[in-house]
Amino acid sequence: MAGDGRDDERDETPLTPPDPDHPRASAVLGEAFGQAARRAGIDPSDHATTGKVVWKAIGGVRGIVESVLPLVVFLAAVTLWPDQLLIAVILSVAAAGAFTLVRLAQRQAPSAALGGLLAVAVAGALVLLTGRAEDNFIPGFITNVAYGSAFLISAFVGWSIIGLAAGFLMDDGIRWRQDRHKRRVFFWLAVMWAALFFARLAVQFPLWLAEVDIQVIGTVKLVMGIPLFAPLVAVTWLAVRALYARRES
């Protein structure tokens, strides 16, 4: 991926347009990733400040509370009633469910809250099945492996998830793959996102294996959550905006 001093050179061979009846897999994936990024508030085509984009991506105050409170409730309940895992599971699921109900009552898109509720419910079911409070973290480990692998593989096969999403959002399709500079930037952005997920796994999984106190693992998980996610959103948004700034001007 090293540069050779010709970063701005492009292959001018036109791309074959997708058949409208049989869209390319890349077009379908690009639209899916782009729509997901747009729903998350990360849309480089939107002329907004970096701070506003990051704040929207994390969901504002509600998003922070929705992502943090169920785990905090679970940890607090386990501390107060260490032999009553059912109480801890019920309270954490109730906390996640409350956010979903509020969104439904306010006629807002409940997708984020529903995703959180499902994750909390699966983790709670696993805790009750194994009888181990620390197994609440296993779904998170699996998620980190899945997301990290997806970003890393997409980078090394030349179809960066970031590039696919940005191409859709910036009305660039897959033409970014003809631009050496864009390909390199999207490669490293995908690698950075993969590194985030694998870093979480590399720190938290050994703690789980060592049977470290559940409050310690939970605290580490919270610290490696939004505080790491938000800066990477900012870097990604700024990088993509910079790539397309010349075209917009």
From TrEMBL:
Residues 1-26 are annotated as: Disordered. This is DUF3159 domain-containing protein. The chain crosses the membrane at residues 63-81, 87-105, 112-133, 145-169, 185-203, 223-244. Keywords: Membrane, Transmembrane, Transmembrane helix. The keyword Flavoprotein does not apply. Pfam families: DUF3159. The keyword Membrane applies. InterPro entries: UCP010219.
